[in-house]
TrEMBL record, chain A:
This is RSAM-partnered protein. Gene3D superfamilies: Phenylacetic acid degradation B. It comes from the Archaea. NCBIfam families: Htur_1727_fam.
Automatic annotation (TrEMBL), chain B:
Coiled coil: none annotated. GO terms for molecular function: 4 iron, 4 sulfur cluster binding; catalytic activity; metal ion binding. Gene3D superfamilies: Aldolase class I. GO terms for biological process: heme biosynthetic process. This is Pseudo-rSAM protein/SPASM domain protein. Residues 35-245 form the Radical SAM core domain. The lineage of its organism: Archaea, Methanobacteriati, Methanobacteriota, Stenosarchaea group, Halobacteria. Keywords: 4Fe-4S, Iron, Iron-sulfur, Metal-binding, S-adenosyl-L-methionine. The keyword Cell membrane does not apply. PANTHER family: PQQA PEPTIDE CYCLASE, RADICAL SAM DOMAIN PROTEIN.
């Protein structure tokens, strides 16, 4: 199946700070779920921002730098320009 | 977006079906016959702008920023939006007219059955570009002016910006484009509002959109310039009075309020006071069909780097990116608890919203401003309704005690 995926271009995702992918776990035995991304200067600030959005539903929150996350997809509009 | 002229003066508009599920009652040709099922999409084509406005929600800059969707990516996005049934795409920025493929993208949207409209500062609308955009299929140009000349220019960071915007308005009208004003109300420019309407009506405008300040981008930096609740009431009342005065004189201006759904409750109260219970109840039903604050439902934003947001003002949080997932898949993903929660927010709203009689036509107001005050289901700190308006029975009981 990997042949059908292309790597998404490494274009920046924000001009006002670093972009952080956000993952939340609702319960101890629930799967970790990707819920979008936030813009923030540091991991702690990203966590704070994500907490304001997801505290009501999240037991755990992970934030991962978007620029360190390589995305491979079968959809999207860039057609795998950097693949 | 609440049409004051529709609700208070029964002025029909092409968006009656889209906004109020009232196409059959409207005398105007409709954008859609049915109430919208899919959001209007704001696409910030670029972060670059030729001006540097102090309230810019997109924090636009005079330099271009890396990562803009290319023309080919933009067309793929428009294909995606068309497949998903998006009724309207609003080309915005930055200043969208700095992109030299704007007309090509307008034509592509139009050819694919999406209504292309434009949000611009107007200063780059020459007669030639106005004609080119009209030929490409542009259906509407909303041009921002935020006060009388001196105040507007100070706000926009450039002397002569007001005059340049008026030239843009004239060029747009001359090309046969439907054209309207966008005016963000702050403490600084609220007193200018009636005079700006008079002045631009004389130029030929008949559509005026008044925006409450939302706290996105540089808008968050000037939240201290936001109107107090009392001044907001005065400004909204001015819009209502002015609309009725124009109509009484036979001048059919279209006026709209954007960005604070406390306006819905205020309009019902205003109508009850000025027009009677029957008209107030009629207006309430229209606002109920409209659906209150549109965050995550009737409005969406794709920024210049392809990030998808729940409104154009709320760009610090992204649901996903169209470079790796289709817009339709991102928007339909109800496994995102925030997106699903906001779409089913009525029983989650807290504080004064929980017991407000206007909850179903307001739905808590701006969720971005709510976030600035605490969390996504907290009350909008800029709700300006009084306790007696929100909970008449409770305050009635209290006064009886």
């Amino acid at each position: 199946m990997t042949a059908d995926r292309t790597r998404v271009t490494d274009e920046p995702r924000s001009a006002t700070g670093r972009e952080w992918e956000v993952f939340v776990r609702a319960d101890a035995d629930a799967p970790l779920k990707h819920v979008g991304s936030v813009t923030a200067g540091t991991a702690d600030t990203a966590h704070e921002h994500a907490s304001s959005l997801f505290d009501w539903v999240a037991r755990s929150i992970w934030v991962c730098p978007a620029d360190e996350t390589q995305r491979y997809t079968t959809g999207g509009v860039d057609g795998g320009r950097s693949a | 977006m609440i049409s004051v002229s529709k609700l208070l003066c029964d002025l029909d508009a092409e968006s009656d079906g889209l906004r109020y599920d009232a196409a059959a009652e409207s005398s105007e040709e409709q954008i859609t016959e049915d109430k919208q099922q899919r959001p209007v999409v704001v696409w910030n084509l670029t972060k670059q702008c030729n001006l540097y406005c102090s309230h810019c929600y997109a924090a636009a800059d005079t330099e271009t920023a890396p990562g803009e969707l290319s023309t080919a990516e933009g067309k793929a996005l428009l294909d995606d939006l068309a497949d998903f049934g998006i009724p309207v795409v609003l080309f915005s920025g930055g200043e969208p007219m700095v992109r030299d493929d704007l007309e090509e993208l307008i034509a592509y949207a139009d050819d694919n059955g999406i209504r292309p409209v434009l949000s611009t500062n107007g200063t780059l609308i020459t007669a030639e570009r106005a004609a080119a955009m009209k030929d490409a299929g542009l259906k509407y140009a909303g041009i921002s002016v935020d006060g009388l000349p001196e105040r507007n220019d100070e706000f926009r960071g450039e002397e002569g910006a007001f005059d340049a915007a008026v030239r843009g308005i004239e060029n747009s009208l001359d090309a046969g484009l439907k054209t309207g004003l966008r005016y963000t109300i702050t403490e600084a420019n609220a007193p200018d509002l009636p005079e700006v309407v008079d002045l631009l009506h004389d130029v030929g405008l008949d559509r005026f959109c008044f925006y409450h300040l939302d706290y996105g981008g540089r808008g968050a930096d000037i939240s201290n310039l936001d109107l107090s609740p009392a001044d907001t009431r005065t400004a909204v009342r001015t819009v209502c009075d002015l609309t009725r005065e124009y109509h009484a004189q036979g001048k059919e201006i279209e006026t709209l309020l954007v960005g604070n759904y406390a306006d819905a409750g205020f309009l019902v109260e205003y109508a009850r006071e000025e027009l009677g219970d029957q008209q107030a109840d009629h207006i309430y039903r229209y606002l109920e069909a409209n659906g209150g604050d549109p965050t995550g439902e009737r409005i969406a934003d794709v920024d210049y780097q392809g990030n998808v947001h729940m409104t154009q003002f709320w760009q610090g949080y992204s649901l996903g990116n169209v470079r790796d997932r289709s817009f339709g898949d991102i928007w339909s993903d109800d496994t995102n608890p925030l997106l699903a929660g906001l779409r089913d927010r009525d029983d989650r709203l807290t504080g004064r919203c929980a017991s407000c009689q206007y909850r179903s036509i307001c739905r808590g107001g701006s969720r971005l401003r709510a976030l600035s005050a605490g969390g996504p289901f907290d009350p909008d700190p800029k709700c300006y309704l009084t306790e007696a308006e929100r909970e008449p029975e409770r305050t009635g009981d209290a006064s009886a005690d």
